[in-house]
Amino acid sequence: MSRILCMRAPRRLLSQPILATAIRNARRYASSAPQFDWEDPLASKTLLTEDELAISAMAESYCQEELAPRVLQAYRDENYDPQILREMGELGLLGATIKGWGCAGVSTVAGGLITRAVERVDSGYRSGMSVQSSLVMGGIHEFGSEELKDRYLPDMAKGKLLGAFGLTEPNHGSDPGSMEMTAREHPQKKGYYLLSGSKTWITNSPISDVLLVWAKLKETGKIRGFVVDRRDSPAGTLETPAIKNKNGLRASITGMIHLQDCPVPQENMFLEVEGLRGPFSCLNNARYGIALGTMGALEDCIARARTYALERKQFKGNPLAKYQLVQKKLADATTDAAYGTLAAIQVGRLKDEGKATPEMISMIKRQNCDRALQGARTLQEIFGGNAVSDEYGIGRHVANLYVTQTYEGQSDIHSLILGRAITGIQAFV
Amino acid sequence: MSRILCMRAPRRLLSQPILATAIRNARRYASSAPQFDWEDPLASKTLLTEDELAISAMAESYCQEELAPRVLQAYRDENYDPQILREMGELGLLGATIKGWGCAGVSTVAGGLITRAVERVDSGYRSGMSVQSSLVMGGIHEFGSEELKDRYLPDMAKGKLLGAFGLTEPNHGSDPGSMEMTAREHPQKKGYYLLSGSKTWITNSPISDVLLVWAKLKETGKIRGFVVDRRDSPAGTLETPAIKNKNGLRASITGMIHLQDCPVPQENMFLEVEGLRGPFSCLNNARYGIALGTMGALEDCIARARTYALERKQFKGNPLAKYQLVQKKLADATTDAAYGTLAAIQVGRLKDEGKATPEMISMIKRQNCDRALQGARTLQEIFGGNAVSDEYGIGRHVANLYVTQTYEGQSDIHSLILGRAITGIQAFV
Amino acid sequence: MSRILCMRAPRRLLSQPILATAIRNARRYASSAPQFDWEDPLASKTLLTEDELAISAMAESYCQEELAPRVLQAYRDENYDPQILREMGELGLLGATIKGWGCAGVSTVAGGLITRAVERVDSGYRSGMSVQSSLVMGGIHEFGSEELKDRYLPDMAKGKLLGAFGLTEPNHGSDPGSMEMTAREHPQKKGYYLLSGSKTWITNSPISDVLLVWAKLKETGKIRGFVVDRRDSPAGTLETPAIKNKNGLRASITGMIHLQDCPVPQENMFLEVEGLRGPFSCLNNARYGIALGTMGALEDCIARARTYALERKQFKGNPLAKYQLVQKKLADATTDAAYGTLAAIQVGRLKDEGKATPEMISMIKRQNCDRALQGARTLQEIFGGNAVSDEYGIGRHVANLYVTQTYEGQSDIHSLILGRAITGIQAFV
Amino acid sequence: MSRILCMRAPRRLLSQPILATAIRNARRYASSAPQFDWEDPLASKTLLTEDELAISAMAESYCQEELAPRVLQAYRDENYDPQILREMGELGLLGATIKGWGCAGVSTVAGGLITRAVERVDSGYRSGMSVQSSLVMGGIHEFGSEELKDRYLPDMAKGKLLGAFGLTEPNHGSDPGSMEMTAREHPQKKGYYLLSGSKTWITNSPISDVLLVWAKLKETGKIRGFVVDRRDSPAGTLETPAIKNKNGLRASITGMIHLQDCPVPQENMFLEVEGLRGPFSCLNNARYGIALGTMGALEDCIARARTYALERKQFKGNPLAKYQLVQKKLADATTDAAYGTLAAIQVGRLKDEGKATPEMISMIKRQNCDRALQGARTLQEIFGGNAVSDEYGIGRHVANLYVTQTYEGQSDIHSLILGRAITGIQAFV
């Protein structure tokens, strides 16, 4: 664990009793007699390092104390508080797997444990963080020049600069290779490109300072990545209107990116990468975070449904938890959470060892999103009509998890990616 | 078909070209060469009478022209316009299966076709109508004295008086037999009862004039039905606060009913019925409407998904409709809609012949709600990330249909009702 | 109902008490008070004519008395007794929907009720009958010359001549249009064709006398139908080896058809039909029988599982039927049987009115086979380990129903047929 | 890895080229560049030790070379060759996790890899081995006196003595606590008990020498374990008739155990254990083997379906593998196999560290059996009608996996075990 994360976390959190308990619980696992823990049925904690346990405990503590109390209202109002990213930055949670530039440099699994903690509260909050950490910081770190890294990463790590990632276009979702946004050499200003086109469903775009945008270079027809800095964009060349009235992820902010001959200096173009490899590599990192993140949302659904089932009584005063049909729903969801967590930890380890492939990420992204959504829906049934009240939180998770199933590769697209890897034949048609 | 419906419909609607087309299409079925119609795959129209076809066409026309344009905003604002019930009343759509008192006196199937037309737009609009028609007017018609019928039915049929149905209590959802609301004899005012207690999740309660409330008579401990007239209730004895921030059915209004020693005259108590038979009989009628109604919502999802799949192009310009995984989703949902419609028509016919049993209603209510919800969710996947925009309408149906699966008997409860009927053994525990 | 069936049935069956009861039960439905009947939950019997009820009762009686006692041993030994078709012929059950040539001339629904009765015992027995009735007799009746009809239909109706239907080839299952079997003009013998090629998975082929075989005419490349008469085929030109060691349908006999320059007179070729329309029309009739037939198998599974659940006691002597998880399985399967039956009756009526389309048949064939298989598998779980014993019969139905899902259009193929009908785009690739 | 396994394996196997390849492949994983391997999608091999890889390779080699060629005929004939257990004994595969008494003393995971190798060929073969290894040898090792261990374990490890495990009774499957078999003190012969009662569905019983039988001690009413030695049982006191005509596991032998005042010396009773803890502990070990074992069967189904899909061509010569609906089936099953394998490895590690609980075993036994069965059934659809031929092997796996889902705790029972662990409330009723 990086010094930064270590040093900062204690200052903020160690005096708080909840964290102390969390760490104590985490450590207890080394010595205790075997006992089934419905919150971690297959003892995935035994696979984590001390550092990872501590990071997870800190992140959970922050999320439960600071994020959980805000989410109900934020979701109702469809409002995202950019202050959240600054708070996360202060705790070292942003770009946490990057080494250097003020980032924590933790393991891939630790990074996933952070997303799980955030998504336990809300998938929208996790989305906001994933864009900042995996898509934009990750992209700049992987493909940007040293100068770009020095210019953007430190402030992004602190949450002082907010990022957005522009890949999806109105007419091109699952098939980004057909994108229409273009970059052409500036006819007057040497060393500059002019970017034009539209992106949509862009998390954080309305509040972003730094936009990593993918466009086709006119001269080559190849896709290239550009870092568009809002501060340097002349009026009228960059618009980022918000998309409102969403059915899910209402606690995150989403918008479009309209570029109209927006000038971008040549040094803001990624040099080392061309084609879809660039955006796909960024997505790969984000997808990992989603795979472990959605397990947090599912676990929260389990905890809420379990509590409800124990407290709600029907028919002669029996708690719902006594009914076989209810127990089966809990057993199914708990199993999926346990399995999905183990799979994500395994892929995280492989990633750090350079042994992970994109198909592995497709597999865990697809399966964990699918099962989280399915599990949340099944658990929702336990609440009966009461699930309609947003105060139970379950409906929010259900609506959010639908979105996680569709973004960064809709479930069926990942099925076909896997199918291609298994058979050697592509069937995207 | 009643004279009222016949006479009124033409005045309002016959000049409109859409209705003419609808009726022409409906009639065409008698003579045309066989051709697969994805909107009615098993030709359920051949099972309908001329009157039923005309009623259905009129209701569809009204709903598409008058309701559809309002629903997006209503759902966003969580707002229900009581004017809608007045419009429906003018068209003869309220309490339509009742004979007399200004009601249309149509067949059970025709009543279901009306709910289907309304729910094709929105399950919340259908809920508002079902409460008025099936639960309150139906209840008064079945169990009320002639005097009660004369006093309430004509104005309710016109939508001038709005009804609410108070059965579910905060602690008693699936098990209404344990209700806590009481009615006791008025200590001073002879011939009056005092009602006290709370009901929750009551559609229309905040805007209702006439509340059919079920309470336990103190002296017998038996459940009895009371018609509570808001105009006659002294200040402070009846409160109907709205429940806001719902996850679904946001285009209908829902609230609580708080009664605090609310005086109700003896003649407003249903005399002929005691115990759960009363409310269950009302629910039975409403459930029938839900069974056919949800098929409308599912059909709308199919139509929306089909259009989207034909218009949206990915990968070499192919429409999504060309993908096998998309076609299977459409085939599954279409089959469920076709089967569910036939089953509901059959039970409607049996009902009019006095051959329907409550278990039959349980079966079609459960199955049609389950399949509509499942189908809507599967079709939603076709929209990918775009489903998150409320303008596609699909997310609204998904959220609504979850609620229809839980109210008037949550799906699992109906499973156990059927299980009991099949095995002779009750397993509610 | 035809005179033949009417006259014959009584002679054989009316003295038998079981039939009397069956008819009495069938008639009772007209007058009795409404009561839920788990064997016919949505009262599909009310949709049947007196004739149809009587035919159904007779067929059920024969099947339960004569077929049921033989099936366990036949399935074990993988043996089919051709005598069964002769018995069915005597009762007028073969080619029953054909008018004339000694056939009963009953309604499509009545024909389906016969298949349901047979498949309630075993899908293999029903397969043997379907081939005779729908595929071969139906094909000759629809496309054959008057001479062919006169020559074959009367003896086939009596079960004296047995038929087989040769369409599927070793390399061409779902895609018969690519068939390799050829017919070429006899180089010496004028008015004769020589047929060569192989067919596989042909029900009844080893015991068949009359083989309706589809081959491509060399001169046109178009598919044509030929009636191959084993009695007229020189030694060595026609072989029909049995395929043994099947996983399902073991009580039916299956084989190949090898033709090696087998001479067939020109008049045995169907004149009126060319291309796939011929075999597809035959399949259409057979698929209808499967759609209603599989409901019989599913209903038998329900009855067996219900009995087992009531008799088997675990945990404090409670019957399994008391467990919620068991009741839900029963409720699900019962609902599917009820819905599937109604859909099949509706399509049968449309068929007789000339209003049915092949896509309707695809829909009910697909859905009813899928749900029957799914239901049988779920009900099998109620038997626990005991299902492994073949004496409970449930494992046999499960294995059989897998086959019904795959033949005459595998389920996914029908999904794509429906998808094409819904979207107008074919996705067979 | 034990010396015995090490020393013996090479002698037998190292000269064989297949093993060399297997070991080379296994080792390759340490160094190769990351590449998706559909046979091990989440690189579970990276979690195995060198020893475990070698044991797995040896077991796979034996099973593919020696067992695979026999299984088709064995399944057809419903015949189990006891020689197989002797071969396994020679290779050190029996009781492999036991340390001492000539057993290999390998890790729990290694033991599971052996069951996986065997079940890749056939679940029946794995069942025969599980009974010998986990249930009988495991039981004697855990609860027997040193004398009993010395007397039985060495010869059982060599496959010279065959074991059977008698717990399930005709009327008591999921609820063994209600067993009826009794043990009473011998009225004449001191130091002896007389056992009476019947057990059923006992794998290996007809060929067994050593029967571990659970019975209620008359004097206490408590369940105790007895080692019944067929050689010491007087004629007429022990009968073990085979159960024939099974729907699944036909390559294993199953029977009953009838005891009629069968005398058993006191020292053959387990002293240390009383009640259900004894048999449940044995089952726990066996269930672990099933959890990893069924993954082998599923993986074999994947491999067979993939090959078939690549070789079978339909519609314009496209292989089935090109169809989206086929690719999705492969992707789903592959994911389940990968996830299930990781979960089983994790629980194996916990078991060796003393951290596993019975609920963890319930979770992986339930989930892996459920998913293996579901996956096999879905993959079977790829074969269409050809799956009916037993030569494709897929139907055999489907039939076998149904049985694995029901034995050693039917799936629903494990759901309720998990439900109890999650909620603290039992719902067995």
Automatic annotation (TrEMBL), chains A, B, C, D:
It catalyses: glutaryl-CoA + oxidized [electron-transfer flavoprotein] + 2 H(+) = (2E)-butenoyl-CoA + reduced [electron-transfer flavoprotein] + CO2. GO terms for molecular function: fatty-acyl-CoA binding; flavin adenine dinucleotide binding; glutaryl-CoA dehydrogenase activity. One of its GO terms (biological process) is fatty acid beta-oxidation using acyl-CoA dehydrogenase. Keywords: FAD, Flavoprotein, Mitochondrion, Oxidoreductase, Transit peptide. Residues 275-422 form the Acyl-CoA dehydrogenase/oxidase C-terminal domain. Pathway: Amino-acid metabolism; lysine degradation; Amino-acid metabolism; tryptophan metabolism. This is glutaryl-CoA dehydrogenase (ETF).
